[in-house]
Amino acid sequence: MCVVISTLSFSQKNLDKGNLKIASVKAVDYMHKTLKLNEKQKAIFASSYAEYAANMMKAVDKTNKSKKGVDPKKNRKELNMHMLRFTEKRDNRIKDCLKKKQVMQYDNLVRDIHPYTLEVKQRKK
Hints:
The chain is an all-alpha fold. It has one domain (about 1-110). Helix content is about 80%, strand content about 0%. The longest helix has about 35 residues, at about 1-35. The protein starts with a helix and ends in a 16-residue tail after the last helix. Residues about 1-15 have low confidence and may be disordered.
């Protein structure tokens, strides 16, 4: 019984990681369609979002493993700090390859992407 429960919990963690990778690809496709990116820009977007997803997965694992006895609010706060740092790094790399008009559009479109799950939720106009 314990083996089944532990196996399910590990598969759930892997499923969440897989969802983050899939969501990062969907986010890049969404940006590609709306910003009309060329291939070089799309490659930079893909690598930046993939790196962001990998860093977020590491940060989640790190905060969950290292501080099991600590208040969940502190873990959440630490994860938020990581997320903000990773987001800034990702956005700086992306904005360097965009044109001025695309940067303005990107700043509006990035709000449609959830920072933790990278799910795209289009706003109503």
